[in-house]
Amino acid sequence: MSWTLGPGDLPDLARGAALLGTGGGGDPHIGRLMVEAAMREHGPVTVLDPGEVDDAAFVVPTAMMGAPTVMVEKIPRGDEAVTALRTLEAHLSRSADATMPIECGGINSMIPLVVAARTGLPVIDADGMGRAFPELQMETFGVYGVPGSPMVVSGDHGETVTIDTGTDNRRMEWLARGAAIRMGGAALIAEYAMSGADVKRTAVPRTLSLGLALGRGLREAREQLRDPVSALAEVLAPTGYSHLRVLFAGKVADVERRTVDGFAKGRARFVSFDGTSTLRTEFQNENLIAEVDGAVRCIVPDLICVLEAESGEPITTETLRYGQRVVVVGISTPDIMRTPEALAVFGPACFGLDAEFRPVEEAVPVG
Amino acid sequence: MSWTLGPGDLPDLARGAALLGTGGGGDPHIGRLMVEAAMREHGPVTVLDPGEVDDAAFVVPTAMMGAPTVMVEKIPRGDEAVTALRTLEAHLSRSADATMPIECGGINSMIPLVVAARTGLPVIDADGMGRAFPELQMETFGVYGVPGSPMVVSGDHGETVTIDTGTDNRRMEWLARGAAIRMGGAALIAEYAMSGADVKRTAVPRTLSLGLALGRGLREAREQLRDPVSALAEVLAPTGYSHLRVLFAGKVADVERRTVDGFAKGRARFVSFDGTSTLRTEFQNENLIAEVDGAVRCIVPDLICVLEAESGEPITTETLRYGQRVVVVGISTPDIMRTPEALAVFGPACFGLDAEFRPVEEAVPVG
After folding, report:
1. Which residues in chain A (142-201) have CB-CB distances under 8 A to chain B?
2. Would you say the C-alpha torsion B232, B237, B238, B241 has a positive or negative sign?
3. Which of A63, A68, B70, B215 is the most exposed place for a label (fewest CB within 10 A)?
4. Where is the signal peptide (chains A, B) (predicted)?
5. pLDDT tens, B81-115?
6. Is B161–A163 a contact, with Cβ atoms under 8 angstroms apart?
7. Å from A262 to nearest chain B CA?
8. Which strand (E) or helix (H) includes residue A114?
9. Residues A204, A103 contacting (CB under 8 angstroms)
10. Nearest C-alpha of chain A: how many angstroms from B162?
11. Which of A163, A166, A178 lies at the smallest CB-CB distance from B181?
12. B91 to chain A, minimum CA–CA distance in Å?
């Protein structure tokens, strides 16, 4: 069932997608402004449920890549992602029937909407990470056999870089990251071109509508003076992300963050309001691990979301700062993201973490 | 007039092309071995004089790019340059009628011969630098209006990167260098695709045959126990490179060399045999400036060639080492390389040198 996404939906979607971005995926405010500008000029966009995409359809996902610390200062002009899509179409001698997000996040749930508004293509309600991940090989698309390349990286001077690494998605990431760094630290991309049948087989479904529902839940809770975390849990319960656990409540005590190798990498320390307990997180664009008093409570690919304590507003890793009062929640990921094949591509070891994956619902029993 | 270049020509060509490489352009021994291997399998190659190329012909130059310090250790598999050419052909939907060197040098005079042997295409007796330069925008092709992109960078895992920066050849170099660095510091390329008419208008003509003649001259001088420098001067006199000046004779006293940003950068100090005089050179892959006792004697784009004192064998910047006994000569470049447009792209200021270009024949009058 297709539906129309208009400017009025964007504040909710930006907030909910940023939550699914688990600390990364780019600044939600900037993403929203980009889509608003595109919709003002070109009108709303059509969203397709993955179930209704024709098996033979040609789908070209679009996104922004780069360190969020850079993306927040280097705003795209607006047409770079369309250039990436058009260049990939020309390279493959085939016209796209739809675009799709590659990840959830404040910017990367929005870029495909910009492309959809500007080109008139529909956008598919699904993505390839079910959250945000820092690297391009970390896609369920690739986990289940769709090659990421040929892909196109597009910069703000109209330049394009078309990368073909065959089925080697890690090498694709390596070369694309190099191009994005030389384009100033962030760039727009089109990659993982695939059939509608592959979308149904490999994508994490309905994450755009989930982002919208999460954002709406947070807003309504705020309007009704309800607890935002309970509101999130209610929205998530019937979905593939059914378990939400409160990991911690307290204040940001320390943030160490560097923009290095094209990523925002670092760690943060949080102290409970009574000062007796400590949460430590590590991140590479996205939050990777949450340890409370030395015990791992949540780890990739499960979601670690830092929220403003009062409003439930998601806080991205590049905006974490001393003194913020937060509640940190862990959210379980759909089964498609927890298979051995998936963990081999974006499990803890892929980030150099010396810990096994353990589902958040096991690590933190309902207490 | 076309001619055939066979395995027997390669030792002379490797030596002479390395001389024109003015310290860069890659190791002549490795280049020679690569062509020998290709010719053993595929036979000799046809060389076309630029004057006989059809105006409508489609010419795709091929080369290796990277720091010579890396190129000497990371030997190409052999088919990467053909992959680059084929990928560019596919991108432009046009088949090449010939390939051509982009520069003179131990490796880069040879790569197009590898491509020619493997594909059966002829190679054009001309190039785009009339020597070697470290950066891809430093081409007479570009100076006189041929865009370098779209271009293809090809690595040893079969991966390709197709770069399109419109008419911005500096941005092309920046992105291609980034790709080459991520491919391990060296890669094979196809770029500056152009018409036969553009070859006639923008290329430095007959530099392959000049390399061959210079190498032959050096070899014959050695066989006849004649002075190698006089032999070189005789070969050069009737060409566009008509002035040869001896800048210095002495020993290498100090070499400072780093592989940085994808280049071999550094400086060398030479002391005369009687210890009374000092030559200082600076290089970025290629020799850029030669100062004798503080006075500039030769500067880009004129050629600064360090030769083994006894044999006249060219010494590349990555093989310079303490104690080598050398004679250093300066060679004037053809007029097409000394115009204001050319100096704006590869004159002294383009390398951050604080000196004006002065023709070597003026800086060093015949003494």
Report:
1. 157-166, 168, 171, 174-175, 177-179, 181-183
2. positive
3. B70
4. none
5. 999 999 999 999 999 999 999 999 989 999 999 99
6. yes
7. 13
8. helix A111-119
9. no
10. 5
11. A178
12. 7
ipTM of predicted complex: 0.89
Name all domains of chain A by residue range, CATH numbers in brackets: 3-205 (3.40.1610.10), 226-363 (2.40.390.10)
Q: Which long-range contacts (CB under 8 A, 24 or more apart) does A254-257 make?
A: A254/A322, A255/A320, A255/A321, A255/A322, A257/A69, A257/A317, A257/A318, A257/A320
Does an H or E element contain A297, and which?
Answer: strand A295-299
* Contact flag B164-A159 (C-beta cutoff 8 Å): yes
Confidence of residue A132 (pLDDT cuts 50, 70, 90): very high
Which of A175, A183, A189, A191 to mutate to test binding with chain B, by most B CBs within 10 Å of its CB? A175
Find the helix or strand (DSSP H, E) in which A40 lies: helix A28-42
Q: CA nearest B170 in A: which residue?
A: A159
Measure CA A162 to chain center.
23
Q: Which residue of A173, A182, A189 is the best one to mutate when testing the B interface, meaning the one whose CB has the most B CBs within 10 A?
A: A182
Identify from A151, A160, A174 which residue to disrupt to test chain B contact, counting B C-beta atoms within 10 A and taking the largest count.
A160
Which chain A residues touch B178 with a CB distance below 8 Å? 178-179, 181-182
Task: Give me the total of CB pairs closer than 8 Å, taking one residue from chain A and one from chain B.
Answer: 66
Which of A91, A177, A179 has the CB atom closest to B175's CB atom?
A179
In A, minimum Cα distance to B168 occurs at: A159
Burial of A226 (0-12, 13-18, 19+ CB in 10 A): middle
The Cα of A229 is separated from the nearest Cα of chain B by a number of Å equal to 44
> B interface mutation test: which of A137, A149, A151, A171 has the most B CBs within 10 A?
A171
- Whole-angstrom distance, CA of residue A72 vs CA of residue A185: 11
Q: Which element (helix H / strand E) includes A252?
A: strand A244-260
Looking at the complex, report in whole angstroms how far the Cα of residue A105 sits from the nearest Cα belonging to chain B.
Answer: 28
The predicted-structure confidence for B191-239, as pLDDT tens digits, reads as follows 999 999 999 999 999 999 999 999 999 999 999 999 999 999 999 999 9
Chain B, 305-344: which have a CB under 8 Å from a chain A CB? none
SS3 for chain B, per residue? CCEEECHHHHHHHHHHHHHHCCCCCCCHHHHHHHHHHHHHHHCCEEEECHHHCCCCCEECCEEEEECHHHHCCCCCCCCHHHHHHHHHHHHHCCCCCEECCCCCCCCCCCHHHHHHHHHCCCEECEECCCCCCCCCCCCHHHHCCCCCCCEEEECCCCCEEEEECCCCHHHHHHHHHHHHHHCCCEEEEECCCEEHHHHHHHCEECHHHHHHHHHHHHHHHHHCCCCHHHHHHHHHCCCCCCCEEEEEEEEEEEEEEEEECCEEEEEEEEEECCCCCEEEEEEECEEEEEEECCEEEEECCCEEEEEECCCCCECCHHHCCCCCEEEEEEECCCHHHCCHHHHHHHCHHHHCCCCCCCCHHHHCCCC
| Amino acid occupying residue B205 | P
Question: In residues, how long is chain B?
Answer: 367
With bands split at pLDDT 50, 70 and 90, how would you rate the model's confidence at B367? low
